[in-house]
Amino acid sequence: MRRARLTSWRWFALALGCVLLTGVIGDRVLPLDFARFDRLSTVAVDRRGETLRIFLATDGVWRLPAHAGEVDPLYLDMLLAYEDQRFKRHPGVDPLAVGRALLQWAGNGRIVSGASTITMQTARLLEPRPRTMRAKLIEMARALQLEVHHSKLEILDVYLTLAPFGGNLEGIRAASRAYFDKEPRRLTEAEAALLVALPRAPEQLRPDRDPVAAEDARNRVLDIAAERGVIDRKTAEEAKRAPVPRQRHPLPFLAPHLTERLARQSDPGQHLLHTTIDATMQSAVEELLQPRLRDFPAEVGMAAMVVENSTLQVVAYVGAPDYFDEERRGMIDMATAVRSPGSTLKPFIYGIGFDRLLLHPDTLMSDSPRDFDGYVPANFDDGFHGDVTAREALQHSLNIPAVALLNRIGSLSFDAALQQVGVTARFDRSRGGASLPFALGGLGLTLEELVTLYAAIPNGGQVRALSSAPDQTPSTPSTLFGPVAAWYVARALEGVSAPRGYADDAGQTRSIGFKTGTSYGYRDAWALGFSGDYTIGVWVGRPDGTPCDACIGMKAAAPILFRVAELLPASPPLRAAPPAGIISGPTGELPPGLRRFERPIGGVIAPKRDPNALSITFPVDGSRLKAKKSPNGLAPIALRAAGGAGRLIWFVNGKPLADPTQRWNGEWYPDGGGFTTIEAMDSEGRSTRIEVFLDVGR
Questions:
Q1: Which CATH code is given to the segment(s) 615-695?
Q2: Residue 307 to residue 568: CA distance in whole angstroms
């Protein structure tokens, strides 16, 4: 008898050893698959850790990493009370729950209650399988495996990250944001109970689709939580009266263009992107720009940036106000789009001129007709102002003095100066080097590059690359011009008249220097400005480059710049103490070489203009016209000209108008839209030509 007992124990020990050996081998050969747990949503956060944007995981779901220590303890207590009371004591499989389930199944002929523990559910979330007996046995084995290799808190973290909550929501953080618009650090009893209930049947219980079913399931959790002492009965009854959410809140979606760029540049597997953005400021700028879009035609877009002068960190970045607006090409990041800068580079031409002692803000310059070896620039208003100071020429953005100064500096030298500080102008270099049209926008730059340059003015002429991520290594400063020249430029731009509706310095409301620009054909409107602490850039135009007659810097972009400035904290006054080396005094007291800007070599006064020179005064060259409908098709568009002699003949796209005998005025009856060439010719053969874009609508 004793020998038989020993033999039985030996067989039992041998069987147990085989089971253990099989478990060890299986654990090594078939390790747990954490691939789903590793496929997380990427989250971009601002400088304080506030969420800016959440990206879908690679498998198309919102899945945010969650940790038990960052979730309201009330939720965890309710979860364990409802799903797995002995979670902290069992080894992954609860023998009591399994025994109870088997007895109920045997007695009723059907499954009455399940035996899944939190650990078993976690195993199923890691490796989803059809609900079969074989799958249940595998879940049990995997649950034991999980418990061997991971702590209870680590298992909870996996569950909290992968639990389904309906639709493409996975994990408690995504669910809490979608249903309650907050992180799950603090939850009410009703909120916690709903989040406990949903994973049982996430599609059937979705509150945004079946709020009644969701409420019933939530209330069952509240009842069990009260029965098991997590909350008292009175609290449970009060929580039942709370409404369930009937729709999902949109997940954060701030600074989409910048966060998209940073996500592309990040390392694979990096799921947390830190940025320098200030979420409060970003939201305010986006909310400011969106309604302004209604002031412009449907195809016009905008972009804006705000940079902190002391750190060169980007605190607000709007590549387009409405990312999903297809008509305005909202998905295109216009802060990095290459566009003509108009006259926004003039401050840097003057800054280099001041730095090289070619002139002083009080130096007299001549604003009169000039011919620079065949290049004959004109002012925006086609007028001339005679003798003006360099300060006035910059403040009024006069073209001829700026071109004359660039001619003295040298276009190639100016281009090299920009490249030296990290800004490369785009133009067709195969046709030769930089040229004088640089002064008026004959090149391509981005809003980001212009903001980089303008931030150098309050920083004493030192240019550094902007940073949008706090871990970026600060770039080495490069000198565009010295602090004296920067001070001269800042004082001049501070004196520019504010746009209509905004008080200037005399109105005691601002301390900001700014410059506007309008590219050829009204394709781009710019406003760049700076205070003591911040630099701001604004662009308005059509992303497709089509002319836009509303896109004038002072009218379209400058008001937005001033509105953005009003959102910023108060800055110290721009009138900081002047640096050493400032030359002050009226023009007559300046050194003789700085009293008047000499006429540049190669720049000669143009011969007196032909008094009968012919010009088209309407439409404006490069403008965009909106066609009006009439009963017979499109309404006629008036044509106006000045100068010339004798009778005038009008041509549209090379074809004469039906009645070419009118003296100055013509009427054009369009037969379609698009780019159109209009030409006028007088009886002595003088001619002039413009190009416009006619928008006939839809």
A1: 2.60.40.10
A2: 11
Judge if 61-240 and 615-695 fold alike in CATH terms.
no
Tell me the domain boundaries of the chain: 1-30, 61-240, 346-440+577-609, 615-695
Domain 61-240 has CATH 3.20.20.80: no
Of 156-165, 529-538, 649-658, which range is least confident?
649-658
Identify the three-state secondary structure at position 153.
helix
Q: Which of 454, 391, 397 is nearest to 423 (CA)?
A: 454
How many CB atoms within 10 Å of residue 346? 27
Kindly tell me if the per-residue pLDDT of 45 is higher than 70.
Answer: yes
Indicate the burial class of 89 (C-beta count within 10 angstroms; 0-12, 13-18, 19 or more). exposed
pTM exceeds cut of 0.90: no
Both tokens of 557, joined, read: 């972009």
Asked if pLDDT for residue 491 goes beyond 60, the answer is yes
The answer to whether 561 and 536 are in contact (CB under 8 A) is yes
* Helix spans in 228-358 (H): 233-240, 256-265, 279-292, 346-355
Going by C-alpha positions, the residue among 339, 289, 366, 313 that lies closest to residue 597 is 366
Confidence band, pLDDT 50/70/90 cuts, at residue 690:
confident
**Residue 658 — very low, low, confident or very high, per pLDDT cuts 50/70/90?**
low
Would you name the residues annotated as active-site residues? 83, 343
The 10 Å CB-count burial string (b at 16+, else e) for 306-331 is: bbbbeebbbbbbbbbbbbebeebebb
